Structures are given as C-alpha cells and as structure tokens.
Amino acid sequence: MNEEYDVIVLGTGLTECILSGIMSVNGKKVLHMDRNPYYGGESASITPLEDLYKRFKIPGAPPASMGRGRDWNVDLIPKFLMANGLMGLFEKRRFRKFLVYVANFDEKDPRTFEGIDPKKTAMRDVYKKFDLGQDVIDFTGHALALYRTDDYLDQPCCETINRIKLYSESLARYGKSPYLYPLYGLGELPQGFARLSAIYGGTYMLNKPIEEIIVQNGKVIGVKSEGEVARCKQLICDPSYVTDRVEKVGQVIRVICILSHPIKNTSDANSCQIIIPQNQVNRKSDIYVCMISSAHNVAAQGKYIAIVSTTVETKEPEKEIRPALELLEPIEQKFVSISDLLVPKDLGTESQIFISRTYDATTHFETTCDDIKDIYKRMTGSEFDFEEMKRKKNDIYGED
C-alpha cells in the first residue's frame, strides 16, 4: 500500500469502476479501494432477499411465498432498462410517418431533410409539421429521446432526431427492446469493469477503511488507510468520501416493489420501462417505472421487481409517485428510500479530486455516461475516445 499511484479511486459504484477501468487501459497505475465489502456502492445488487429486509428495517423475515432468499438480486438503483409493449398506444399514421422520416434522416444528406433545417428548425416545429398531438410529443421527447425537461422543444432539432434514431436502431437490433439488462442484476457491471482494470494492472481492495484524504497546498497527494499512506496524483471518488466538497441540489424517491404479476397492459411482458411524462401528471419531473423478473435471474420464479423513482418536488414525496404505484397494484411488499442528490462544488482541476454525482431518478444510463465523460475530460483534458477503448479491449478479449 505504501506506493505511489497515478490514480486512486474510492468507491465501487458503476461510475468509479468504469473510470478505474478506463484509466488502467490508458496505462495509468490505479489503486481502487472501497470501505464496503461488496461492489456497487449505492447502486449495489442486494442478495439474499433477507438482506433487503434488514437494509430497509422491515420487521420479520420474507414470507415463504417469496421463494428462496438467494434467488433474489435486487438492484437499489436500476438502470439500462427494457421497454416492451408501449408502442401500441401510439399507432397513428402521423406518428408512423414521423418515425419513417427519422429513420431516413441523415444530417450529411440534405435530400433527407424534407424542408427542415436540422441546425435551425426547432423541434417544436418538426412536431407541428407532422401534426403530432401533445401526448405523442410527451412520449417521443421523454420516452424515446430521453429528455428530462421540455427545454429541447425550442432547440435545433438535429440532436433530438438523432436521439430518436438511436432508439429506433437499438430497437431494430434487439427486437422487442432497445435496452439491455445484465442477468443477476447491475452489480455484475462494476465487477466487470473491475476485472478489466485488474487485467491492465489495477489493484483492488474491498473492506478498506478510509481514514483521510491527504491534501497539501490545495492538491491531493494521497489517501491514508489503516495507518498506511498511498500517494497519488489524482483521486476519483463518490460523494460519500468527501462530504465537505459536495452540495445537495435535490432529492430522489425510489420505491422497490415486489409483485406476483406483470404490470397491466404490457402484454404480460417480463420486463418493461414506463416513463410518465411530467405534463401528464402536472409535475416538473418525469416519473420512472421499471420492472424486471425471474427471467433476469433477479427474483424467484413467478415474481417481479418494479421500481418507481422521481425527483422530489414536495414535502410528501410518496404522494408524488402515487400515479405510478397505482399501475403496479396489488403490491406484495414495498421498500421506500429517499436519497439526496449530491454534486461536486468545483471541477476538481485545482485539487485533482474528481467527484462523481449521485444517481438521479432516471432508469437509463444517459446521465451517468455524461458524468463519466465529463470527469474523464476534466482529468485528462481530452474527450473520451470510445473507439480507442474498444480497440484496446479487443486486444485482450478479441473481436465481439
């Protein structure tokens, strides 16, 4: 431990593990530590089910009807979710015509523009051109393009069209769903990137108490643990390790629900994502519902896990998610949590301490990916080159 590293990483959330892997692949000497004995941090997968009951202080043991506790792997913060059975609600000719336009759109080929200037025409005007109703606009902007507000409506339409195009191409590639979800829960993802880091020489230490982050002249120089100091040039960590360097910008409510049935009106899908746009429920923030099942090795046979989340806007957050919970009835067991949304107070370029953001209410990884790319750019001064990362990975694993 008494060594010098290029980068020390604290916390094994997905953001930290991905950055650890990236830095190792880039030839940096990386030490990765976590005070917890498990991977995943606040986005961990909890198993067995008895541990979930203990974590949320639910009295008693899970009932026998829920099967074996070890058959459960419950994600505290699910991402990467699937969408099945929703498109049937919007089978309108105008919407189909719009999707055909999006599929054919190529920002490098003006012949595909059909009178729309992608750099100047606002997205609001594109919807108007295809005569789309408000419900369809809400669905398209929030469930397909994955915007969290309606600010995009008055921006040039090119980015939005490309976002919808990405959704459509992903749907075409994977069949019923444009999303992927790992078997046995999202806890597998941090471990995958940890293994990648280890292949490139990264060192991992779980169950390692962090006593002090050592800063001299305003810049990080190391981390003290169990009386030993590991020196470093840069530090990556989640907000829990540097509470004095982050600020609260809001809260998220999440409710994990155990069901014995699929969600109604989803064609008995074994997984789905539902996004309730803010306008539909007179809110400023969307409400997210995702459901996974025994098909993903995360629940006992015949059981389903649905998780509802949204950004808190009032003093009664559980009332805010009632429209989503009504979609899930009857619910066998609920686990409610309210988490602070924490962001770093500065960019970290002076202290060389780079802090990730806590996970927001969304059930997809777009904002997490944005955070990863942002931290990478602040650390290295350059944009993250995914193709270069892919080439280096293929050197180890071979072509996909």
UniProtKB/TrEMBL annotation:
Main localization (coarse): cytoplasm
Subcellular location per the Swiss-Prot or TrEMBL entry: Cytoplasm; Golgi apparatus, trans-Golgi network; Membrane
Keywords, sorted A to Z: Acetylation, Cytoplasm, Golgi apparatus, GTPase activation, Membrane, Phosphoprotein
MF GO annotations: GTPase activator activity; Rab GDP-dissociation inhibitor activity
A Gene Ontology term for the protein's cellular component: Golgi apparatus
Membrane-spanning intervals of the chain: none
Annotated membrane topology: Peripheral membrane protein
Biological processes annotated in GO: protein transport; small GTPase-mediated signal transduction; vesicle-mediated transport
Pfam families on file: GDI
Domain of life: Eukaryota
Function in brief: GDP-dissociation inhibitor preventing the GDP to GTP exchange of most Rab proteins. By keeping these small GTPases in their inactive GDP-bound form regulates intracellular membrane trafficking. Negatively regulates protein transport to the cilium and ciliogenesis through the inhibition of RAB8A. Regulates the GDP/GTP exchange reaction of most RAB proteins by inhibiting the dissociation of GDP from them, and the subsequent binding of GTP.
Family: Belongs to the Rab GDI family.
Subunit architecture: Interacts with RHOH. Interacts with the GDP-bound inactive forms of RAB3A, RAB3B, RAB3C, RAB5A, RAB5B, RAB5C, RAB8A, RAB8B, RAB10, RAB12, RAB35, and RAB43; binds RAB3D to a lesser extent. Interacts with DZIP1; this interaction negatively regulates the interaction of GDI2 with GDP-bound RAB8A.
Protein name: Rab GDP dissociation inhibitor
UniProt source species: Ailuropoda melanoleuca (Giant panda)
